[in-house]
Amino acid sequence: MAVQEARQGPEPGAHDGGCACGDCPHGAREGHRRAVAAFLVKRDEFAAGQGLPAAVAHSASASRQWVSEELTQSAELVAERGRAEGESWLSRVWQRTACTVGAAVVTLLLVQSLTAIGAGWTTARTAGLLAALLVGGALTAASWLHRARGGALAPVIGEDNRLSTSRVVAAAWVLFVAYAVLVLVGRLAAASGPAERDALISGLDLARGAGAVTVLAVVCAIAVLVRRVVGLRVLGQRLQKVRAHRPRAADLLTDDAGRGTFADIQYVAISAVALAFAAVRLARRPDQLPDLPWGLAVVVLVSAATYLAGKYAEGGRPVVLSVVRSREAGDLDGPIRTGDDIEIRGAGFVPPGAQTADRLSRMVVRIGAVHVHVPLVPVAGGFSNPTDAVLTVPVPAEVEPGRVEVQVITAAGVETNRYAIDVTD
Predict the structure, then answer these.
(1) Distance CA 43, CA 170 (A)
(2) Three-class secondary structure of residue 414 per DSSP
(3) Which residues contact 196 (CB under 8 A, 6 or more apart)?
(4) I want to staple 2 with a disulfide (CB 3.0 to 4.6 A). Which of 37, 179, 378, 415 is the partner?
Protein backbone atom coordinates (compact mmCIF):
# COMPACT_ATOMS: atom_id res chain seq x y z
CA MET A 1 0.00 0.00 0.00
CA ALA A 2 2.83 2.40 0.87
CA VAL A 3 4.55 1.67 -2.43
CA GLN A 4 1.33 2.31 -4.33
CA GLU A 5 0.86 5.62 -2.52
CA ALA A 6 4.43 6.62 -3.36
CA ARG A 7 3.84 5.92 -7.07
CA GLN A 8 0.62 7.97 -6.98
CA GLY A 9 2.36 10.87 -5.21
CA PRO A 10 1.43 12.63 -1.98
CA GLU A 11 -2.15 13.50 -1.17
CA PRO A 12 -3.31 17.08 -1.71
CA GLY A 13 -2.35 19.19 1.29
CA ALA A 14 0.00 16.61 2.77
CA HIS A 15 3.40 17.79 3.91
CA ASP A 16 6.59 15.80 4.00
CA GLY A 17 6.35 14.62 7.59
CA GLY A 18 9.18 16.64 9.07
CA CYS A 19 7.12 17.82 12.03
CA ALA A 20 6.72 16.07 15.38
CA CYS A 21 2.95 15.96 15.45
CA GLY A 22 2.76 12.62 17.25
CA ASP A 23 -0.02 10.54 15.72
CA CYS A 24 -0.83 13.20 13.13
CA PRO A 25 -1.30 11.42 9.78
CA HIS A 26 1.24 13.84 8.27
CA GLY A 27 3.67 13.71 11.21
CA ALA A 28 7.09 12.15 11.61
CA ARG A 29 5.85 8.57 11.39
CA GLU A 30 3.96 9.22 8.16
CA GLY A 31 6.93 11.11 6.73
CA HIS A 32 9.21 8.16 7.43
CA ARG A 33 6.75 5.70 5.90
CA ARG A 34 6.47 7.76 2.72
CA ALA A 35 10.24 8.16 2.44
CA VAL A 36 10.71 4.40 2.75
CA ALA A 37 8.05 3.75 0.13
CA ALA A 38 9.62 6.24 -2.31
CA PHE A 39 13.05 4.68 -1.81
CA LEU A 40 11.74 1.17 -2.48
CA VAL A 41 10.08 2.34 -5.69
CA LYS A 42 13.30 4.00 -6.87
CA ARG A 43 15.41 0.97 -5.99
CA ASP A 44 13.13 -1.45 -7.82
CA GLU A 45 13.01 0.82 -10.89
CA PHE A 46 16.80 1.00 -11.06
CA ALA A 47 17.02 -2.76 -10.55
CA ALA A 48 14.77 -3.20 -13.59
CA GLY A 49 16.96 -0.87 -15.67
CA GLN A 50 14.49 2.00 -15.69
CA GLY A 51 15.09 5.68 -15.00
CA LEU A 52 18.66 5.87 -16.30
CA PRO A 53 19.54 9.09 -18.15
CA ALA A 54 20.81 8.71 -21.71
CA ALA A 55 24.12 10.35 -20.81
CA VAL A 56 25.20 7.42 -18.61
CA ALA A 57 23.19 4.54 -20.09
CA HIS A 58 25.96 3.66 -22.56
CA SER A 59 28.54 3.01 -19.82
CA ALA A 60 28.12 0.26 -17.27
CA SER A 61 30.50 1.86 -14.78
CA ALA A 62 28.99 5.33 -15.19
CA SER A 63 25.43 4.05 -14.84
CA ARG A 64 26.39 2.05 -11.78
CA GLN A 65 27.97 5.09 -10.16
CA TRP A 66 25.00 7.30 -11.02
CA VAL A 67 22.51 4.79 -9.64
CA SER A 68 24.56 4.42 -6.47
CA GLU A 69 24.64 8.19 -5.91
CA GLU A 70 20.90 8.52 -6.47
CA LEU A 71 20.12 5.69 -4.06
CA THR A 72 22.53 7.10 -1.47
CA GLN A 73 20.80 10.48 -1.51
CA SER A 74 17.40 8.85 -1.22
CA ALA A 75 18.64 6.63 1.60
CA GLU A 76 19.93 9.65 3.50
CA LEU A 77 16.44 11.14 3.36
CA VAL A 78 15.01 7.88 4.69
CA ALA A 79 17.53 7.92 7.54
CA GLU A 80 16.69 11.53 8.38
CA ARG A 81 12.97 10.74 8.48
CA GLY A 82 13.71 7.67 10.59
CA ARG A 83 15.61 9.70 13.16
CA ALA A 84 12.79 12.24 13.31
CA GLU A 85 10.25 9.44 13.79
CA GLY A 86 12.39 7.91 16.54
CA GLU A 87 12.67 11.20 18.44
CA SER A 88 8.93 11.75 18.13
CA TRP A 89 8.27 8.23 19.44
CA LEU A 90 10.59 8.71 22.42
CA SER A 91 8.89 11.98 23.35
CA ARG A 92 5.53 10.18 23.61
CA VAL A 93 6.73 7.30 25.80
CA TRP A 94 5.96 9.11 29.06
CA GLN A 95 2.27 9.38 28.10
CA ARG A 96 2.10 5.66 27.38
CA THR A 97 3.91 4.99 30.65
CA ALA A 98 1.28 6.94 32.58
CA CYS A 99 -1.52 5.02 30.86
CA THR A 100 0.20 1.66 31.46
CA VAL A 101 0.81 2.43 35.14
CA GLY A 102 -2.78 3.56 35.61
CA ALA A 103 -4.10 0.40 33.95
CA ALA A 104 -1.83 -1.78 36.11
CA VAL A 105 -3.04 -0.12 39.34
CA VAL A 106 -6.68 -0.47 38.32
CA THR A 107 -6.10 -4.13 37.42
CA LEU A 108 -4.51 -4.75 40.82
CA LEU A 109 -7.45 -3.09 42.53
CA LEU A 110 -9.93 -5.26 40.61
CA VAL A 111 -7.98 -8.45 41.38
CA GLN A 112 -7.78 -7.59 45.07
CA SER A 113 -11.48 -6.75 45.17
CA LEU A 114 -12.44 -10.03 43.54
CA THR A 115 -10.19 -12.12 45.79
CA ALA A 116 -11.49 -10.27 48.86
CA ILE A 117 -15.00 -11.63 48.30
CA GLY A 118 -15.60 -14.02 51.13
CA ALA A 119 -12.16 -13.55 52.69
CA GLY A 120 -12.61 -9.88 53.48
CA TRP A 121 -10.41 -6.85 52.95
CA THR A 122 -7.13 -6.94 54.85
CA THR A 123 -4.33 -4.52 55.68
CA ALA A 124 -2.09 -6.51 53.34
CA ARG A 125 -4.36 -5.64 50.41
CA THR A 126 -4.31 -1.98 51.38
CA ALA A 127 -0.53 -2.05 51.72
CA GLY A 128 -0.17 -3.71 48.30
CA LEU A 129 -2.40 -1.13 46.66
CA LEU A 130 -0.57 1.79 48.30
CA ALA A 131 2.81 0.30 47.32
CA ALA A 132 1.62 0.01 43.72
CA LEU A 133 0.52 3.66 43.78
CA LEU A 134 3.91 4.75 45.13
CA VAL A 135 5.92 2.73 42.60
CA GLY A 136 3.63 3.78 39.75
CA GLY A 137 3.78 7.42 40.79
CA ALA A 138 7.57 7.31 40.92
CA LEU A 139 7.71 5.73 37.46
CA THR A 140 5.33 8.32 36.03
CA ALA A 141 7.23 11.22 37.58
CA ALA A 142 10.58 9.90 36.35
CA SER A 143 9.09 9.31 32.92
CA TRP A 144 7.86 12.91 32.74
CA LEU A 145 11.20 14.32 33.88
CA HIS A 146 13.02 12.30 31.19
CA ARG A 147 10.30 12.62 28.55
CA ALA A 148 12.74 13.88 25.93
CA ARG A 149 14.94 10.78 26.31
CA GLY A 150 12.37 8.02 26.39
CA GLY A 151 10.70 8.50 29.76
CA ALA A 152 10.79 5.40 31.93
CA LEU A 153 12.73 3.58 29.21
CA ALA A 154 15.70 5.97 29.48
CA PRO A 155 17.65 3.84 32.03
CA VAL A 156 17.20 0.65 29.99
CA ILE A 157 18.11 2.04 26.55
CA GLY A 158 21.65 1.19 25.51
CA GLU A 159 24.17 3.43 23.82
CA ASP A 160 23.08 2.02 20.45
CA ASN A 161 19.50 3.28 21.07
CA ARG A 162 18.16 -0.24 21.56
CA LEU A 163 16.53 -1.81 24.61
CA SER A 164 19.16 -3.59 26.69
CA THR A 165 18.07 -7.07 27.74
CA SER A 166 20.30 -7.10 30.81
CA ARG A 167 19.09 -3.68 31.98
CA VAL A 168 15.42 -4.54 31.48
CA VAL A 169 15.75 -7.77 33.49
CA ALA A 170 17.66 -5.97 36.26
CA ALA A 171 15.12 -3.12 36.31
CA ALA A 172 12.25 -5.60 36.60
CA TRP A 173 13.85 -7.26 39.63
CA VAL A 174 14.65 -3.89 41.24
CA LEU A 175 11.05 -2.69 40.84
CA PHE A 176 9.68 -5.94 42.21
CA VAL A 177 11.93 -5.94 45.29
CA ALA A 178 11.13 -2.27 45.91
CA TYR A 179 7.42 -3.07 45.69
CA ALA A 180 7.80 -6.00 48.10
CA VAL A 181 9.64 -3.86 50.64
CA LEU A 182 7.01 -1.12 50.36
CA VAL A 183 4.31 -3.71 51.06
CA LEU A 184 6.13 -4.66 54.27
CA VAL A 185 6.53 -0.98 55.15
CA GLY A 186 2.80 -0.42 54.74
CA ARG A 187 1.97 -3.41 56.89
CA LEU A 188 4.47 -2.31 59.53
CA ALA A 189 2.94 1.16 59.64
CA ALA A 190 -0.52 -0.34 60.17
CA ALA A 191 0.60 -2.95 62.72
CA SER A 192 -1.05 -2.48 66.12
CA GLY A 193 0.90 -4.81 68.43
CA PRO A 194 4.61 -5.32 69.11
CA ALA A 195 4.38 -9.02 68.28
CA GLU A 196 3.05 -8.25 64.78
CA ARG A 197 5.69 -5.60 64.25
CA ASP A 198 8.46 -7.97 65.29
CA ALA A 199 7.12 -10.62 62.92
CA LEU A 200 7.10 -8.14 60.02
CA ILE A 201 10.64 -6.98 60.77
CA SER A 202 11.83 -10.58 60.91
CA GLY A 203 10.30 -11.01 57.45
CA LEU A 204 13.18 -8.90 56.15
CA ASP A 205 15.80 -11.32 57.51
CA LEU A 206 18.32 -12.47 54.95
CA ALA A 207 17.61 -16.10 55.77
CA ARG A 208 14.09 -15.73 54.36
CA GLY A 209 14.90 -13.71 51.23
CA ALA A 210 18.39 -14.98 50.46
CA GLY A 211 17.37 -16.46 47.10
CA ALA A 212 15.67 -13.28 45.89
CA VAL A 213 18.49 -11.06 47.15
CA THR A 214 21.10 -13.23 45.44
CA VAL A 215 19.23 -13.12 42.13
CA LEU A 216 18.84 -9.34 42.46
CA ALA A 217 22.56 -8.89 43.06
CA VAL A 218 23.54 -11.12 40.14
CA VAL A 219 21.20 -9.59 37.54
CA CYS A 220 22.30 -6.06 38.54
CA ALA A 221 25.96 -7.09 38.31
CA ILE A 222 25.28 -8.69 34.91
CA ALA A 223 23.74 -5.42 33.65
CA VAL A 224 26.82 -3.43 34.69
CA LEU A 225 29.29 -6.03 33.45
CA VAL A 226 27.62 -6.42 30.05
CA ARG A 227 27.80 -2.68 29.46
CA ARG A 228 31.50 -2.76 30.26
CA VAL A 229 32.14 -5.81 28.09
CA VAL A 230 30.28 -4.40 25.08
CA GLY A 231 31.98 -1.03 25.42
CA LEU A 232 35.47 -2.52 25.55
CA ARG A 233 34.80 -4.85 22.62
CA VAL A 234 33.51 -1.95 20.50
CA LEU A 235 36.54 0.20 21.34
CA GLY A 236 38.82 -2.76 20.60
CA GLN A 237 37.12 -3.23 17.19
CA ARG A 238 36.08 -6.76 18.12
CA LEU A 239 32.38 -5.90 18.02
CA GLN A 240 30.52 -3.78 15.46
CA LYS A 241 27.65 -1.61 16.65
CA VAL A 242 25.43 0.72 14.64
CA ARG A 243 22.82 2.99 16.16
CA ALA A 244 19.13 2.19 15.74
CA HIS A 245 16.53 4.83 14.95
CA ARG A 246 14.51 3.95 18.07
CA PRO A 247 14.20 1.16 20.64
CA ARG A 248 11.74 -1.67 20.04
CA ALA A 249 10.31 -4.38 22.27
CA ALA A 250 11.83 -6.99 19.93
CA ASP A 251 15.30 -5.81 20.99
CA LEU A 252 14.91 -7.89 24.16
CA LEU A 253 14.84 -11.15 22.18
CA THR A 254 16.88 -10.42 19.06
CA ASP A 255 20.33 -9.25 18.01
CA ASP A 256 21.03 -5.98 16.21
CA ALA A 257 20.05 -7.55 12.89
CA GLY A 258 16.61 -8.57 14.19
CA ARG A 259 17.35 -12.30 14.41
CA GLY A 260 16.24 -14.21 17.49
CA THR A 261 19.09 -14.88 19.91
CA PHE A 262 19.05 -17.94 22.17
CA ALA A 263 21.01 -16.27 24.99
CA ASP A 264 18.61 -13.32 25.18
CA ILE A 265 15.44 -15.38 24.80
CA GLN A 266 16.29 -17.87 27.55
CA TYR A 267 17.41 -15.07 29.90
CA VAL A 268 14.15 -13.14 29.47
CA ALA A 269 11.96 -16.25 29.65
CA ILE A 270 13.54 -17.72 32.79
CA SER A 271 13.65 -14.33 34.52
CA ALA A 272 9.96 -13.77 33.73
CA VAL A 273 9.04 -17.18 35.16
CA ALA A 274 11.06 -16.53 38.32
CA LEU A 275 9.44 -13.11 38.74
CA ALA A 276 5.98 -14.63 38.34
CA PHE A 277 6.80 -17.22 41.02
CA ALA A 278 8.12 -14.52 43.36
CA ALA A 279 4.99 -12.41 42.81
CA VAL A 280 2.75 -15.35 43.75
CA ARG A 281 4.84 -16.00 46.86
CA LEU A 282 4.49 -12.34 47.85
CA ALA A 283 0.72 -12.50 47.36
CA ARG A 284 0.49 -15.63 49.52
CA ARG A 285 2.94 -14.41 52.18
CA PRO A 286 2.83 -10.60 52.27
CA ASP A 287 4.51 -10.54 55.70
CA GLN A 288 8.02 -11.31 54.39
CA LEU A 289 10.28 -11.01 51.38
CA PRO A 290 9.52 -13.62 48.71
CA ASP A 291 11.50 -16.70 49.67
CA LEU A 292 12.69 -17.72 46.22
CA PRO A 293 13.70 -21.41 46.43
CA TRP A 294 17.38 -22.02 45.87
CA GLY A 295 16.63 -24.42 43.03
CA LEU A 296 14.84 -21.68 41.08
CA ALA A 297 17.49 -19.13 42.07
CA VAL A 298 20.25 -21.36 40.70
CA VAL A 299 18.29 -21.73 37.44
CA VAL A 300 18.20 -17.93 37.10
CA LEU A 301 21.93 -17.73 37.85
CA VAL A 302 22.71 -20.33 35.19
CA SER A 303 20.56 -18.39 32.73
CA ALA A 304 22.43 -15.17 33.58
CA ALA A 305 25.78 -16.90 33.10
CA THR A 306 24.64 -18.18 29.70
CA TYR A 307 23.57 -14.69 28.69
CA LEU A 308 26.92 -13.24 29.74
CA ALA A 309 28.81 -15.95 27.84
CA GLY A 310 26.75 -15.12 24.77
CA LYS A 311 27.81 -11.49 25.02
CA TYR A 312 31.45 -12.52 25.15
CA ALA A 313 31.03 -14.84 22.14
CA GLU A 314 29.12 -12.52 19.79
CA GLY A 315 30.70 -10.32 17.19
CA GLY A 316 34.12 -10.51 15.65
CA ARG A 317 36.35 -8.29 13.59
CA PRO A 318 35.74 -8.16 9.83
CA VAL A 319 38.44 -9.78 7.76
CA VAL A 320 39.61 -9.68 4.14
CA LEU A 321 40.48 -13.17 2.93
CA SER A 322 41.30 -12.54 -0.71
CA VAL A 323 41.11 -9.96 -3.50
CA VAL A 324 40.65 -10.98 -7.12
CA ARG A 325 40.01 -9.22 -10.41
CA SER A 326 36.32 -9.15 -11.23
CA ARG A 327 35.71 -10.76 -14.58
CA GLU A 328 32.58 -10.55 -16.68
CA ALA A 329 31.57 -12.99 -19.39
CA GLY A 330 33.78 -12.59 -22.43
CA ASP A 331 36.59 -10.75 -20.66
CA LEU A 332 40.14 -11.99 -21.03
CA ASP A 333 42.11 -13.11 -18.00
CA GLY A 334 44.78 -10.71 -16.86
CA PRO A 335 46.28 -8.78 -13.96
CA ILE A 336 44.55 -6.05 -12.02
CA ARG A 337 44.78 -2.70 -13.81
CA THR A 338 43.47 0.75 -12.98
CA GLY A 339 39.87 0.98 -14.09
CA ASP A 340 39.18 -2.71 -13.42
CA ASP A 341 36.73 -3.94 -10.82
CA ILE A 342 38.11 -5.97 -7.94
CA GLU A 343 36.17 -8.45 -5.87
CA ILE A 344 37.03 -8.43 -2.16
CA ARG A 345 36.12 -11.66 -0.41
CA GLY A 346 35.97 -12.01 3.34
CA ALA A 347 33.53 -11.93 6.27
CA GLY A 348 31.82 -9.39 8.51
CA PHE A 349 31.69 -6.52 6.01
CA VAL A 350 28.06 -5.65 6.89
CA PRO A 351 27.57 -5.17 10.67
CA PRO A 352 24.34 -6.44 12.25
CA GLY A 353 21.65 -3.82 11.83
CA ALA A 354 23.46 -2.11 8.93
CA GLN A 355 21.53 -3.75 6.09
CA THR A 356 19.73 -0.51 5.19
CA ALA A 357 20.91 1.53 2.22
CA ASP A 358 22.03 4.53 4.29
CA ARG A 359 24.38 2.23 6.26
CA LEU A 360 25.62 0.31 3.22
CA SER A 361 26.48 3.54 1.42
CA ARG A 362 28.92 4.43 4.23
CA MET A 363 31.22 1.51 3.44
CA VAL A 364 34.63 2.49 2.08
CA VAL A 365 37.52 0.54 0.60
CA ARG A 366 41.00 1.99 0.97
CA ILE A 367 43.19 1.07 -2.02
CA GLY A 368 46.64 2.39 -1.31
CA ALA A 369 46.07 6.03 -0.42
CA VAL A 370 42.76 6.30 -2.30
CA HIS A 371 39.39 5.91 -0.55
CA VAL A 372 36.74 4.31 -2.76
CA HIS A 373 33.09 4.31 -1.72
CA VAL A 374 31.43 0.97 -2.30
CA PRO A 375 28.72 1.40 -4.99
CA LEU A 376 25.19 0.24 -4.28
CA VAL A 377 24.00 -2.24 -6.92
CA PRO A 378 20.24 -2.74 -6.61
CA VAL A 379 18.36 -5.95 -7.37
CA ALA A 380 14.75 -6.83 -6.81
CA GLY A 381 14.16 -6.76 -3.05
CA GLY A 382 17.65 -5.65 -2.00
CA PHE A 383 21.25 -5.12 -3.12
CA SER A 384 23.75 -7.44 -4.75
CA ASN A 385 26.63 -5.19 -3.68
CA PRO A 386 27.82 -4.77 -1.01
CA THR A 387 27.21 -8.01 0.88
CA ASP A 388 28.58 -9.40 4.11
CA ALA A 389 31.09 -11.64 2.34
CA VAL A 390 31.81 -9.97 -1.02
CA LEU A 391 32.44 -6.38 -2.13
CA THR A 392 33.02 -5.15 -5.67
CA VAL A 393 34.70 -1.78 -6.25
CA PRO A 394 36.54 -0.17 -9.16
CA VAL A 395 40.25 0.58 -9.02
CA PRO A 396 40.38 4.33 -9.70
CA ALA A 397 42.99 5.92 -11.96
CA GLU A 398 44.46 7.74 -8.94
CA VAL A 399 45.88 4.45 -7.64
CA GLU A 400 49.59 4.28 -8.42
CA PRO A 401 50.71 1.10 -10.21
CA GLY A 402 52.67 -1.31 -8.08
CA ARG A 403 52.06 -3.14 -4.86
CA VAL A 404 49.24 -1.53 -2.83
CA GLU A 405 47.24 -2.57 0.19
CA VAL A 406 43.47 -3.03 0.26
CA GLN A 407 41.48 -2.45 3.44
CA VAL A 408 37.71 -2.33 4.07
CA ILE A 409 36.12 0.16 6.48
CA THR A 410 32.62 -0.93 7.51
CA ALA A 411 29.63 1.23 8.34
CA ALA A 412 30.47 0.85 12.04
CA GLY A 413 33.89 2.39 11.47
CA VAL A 414 35.79 -0.87 12.00
CA GLU A 415 38.82 -1.53 9.77
CA THR A 416 39.75 -4.93 8.41
CA ASN A 417 43.22 -6.34 7.98
CA ARG A 418 45.36 -5.08 5.09
CA TYR A 419 45.64 -7.24 1.98
CA ALA A 420 48.36 -6.54 -0.59
CA ILE A 421 47.68 -6.67 -4.34
CA ASP A 422 49.67 -5.78 -7.46
CA VAL A 423 48.25 -3.12 -9.79
CA THR A 424 49.71 -2.79 -13.30
CA ASP A 425 49.38 -0.08 -15.93
Answers:
(1) 43
(2) coil
(3) none
(4) 37
